[in-house]
Specification:
Elements (H helix, E strand, L loop, with lengths): L1 H20 L3 H5 L10 E5 L5 E6 L3 E6 L3 E7 L10 E7 L7 H12 L4 E10 L2 E12 L2 E13 L2 E10 L4 H12 L3 E2 L2
Antiparallel strand pairs: 1-2, 2-10, 3-4, 4-5, 5-9, 6-7, 7-8, 8-9
Length: 188
Amino acid sequence: MKLKSTYRIVLVASLLCYSCHSPSEIRKEFNCEPSTCNNLETVADLNALFSVDLPKNWKINLYQDEVQSSIFAADTTKQLTQTVLLDVTYISNKINFDDTFLLKQEQEYLSENLIKLKTKTFNFQEKPALYMLFKGKKGKFDYQICNTFIKVNASNFIFAKTEVYGDSLVNQRLCKAFSLLEKMNIKN
């Protein structure tokens, strides 16, 4: 009998671990390896509209105004070319992933000499979402930015900006940000 109970505990622990590691659609797109869920703390925005689990050692800044509430986070113990910058903002405004929106985004980043690498719509926590990946130079560094837009409801969306400087382990750093984003808790 004791063996059955031990087996059940191991099975439940394995399932919990697997659910923690099961990749979101965006992580599948980037061929991300399973992520670990450790040393995280839940950080809520100032309006309590969403929260994100972030590493405890990251520097975190919160911001809000009449239209938006945001969490900016980065591991400042690492060099800029070894870390990821993550800015998640809840915006009180409508969003449509139509051609006009896509063209406006492309033009904005093209004016900064960034080239679009990928655009894809997907579902994020059962909500319509879109990501756009751009690449170029910022200052003297190679630079990639992945903008993720999540339509919360008819009047609100989340804009998650992931920035990576340098050319070392770019995909792994993007994947780390995506694994943090997929644990986001959005209030409706």
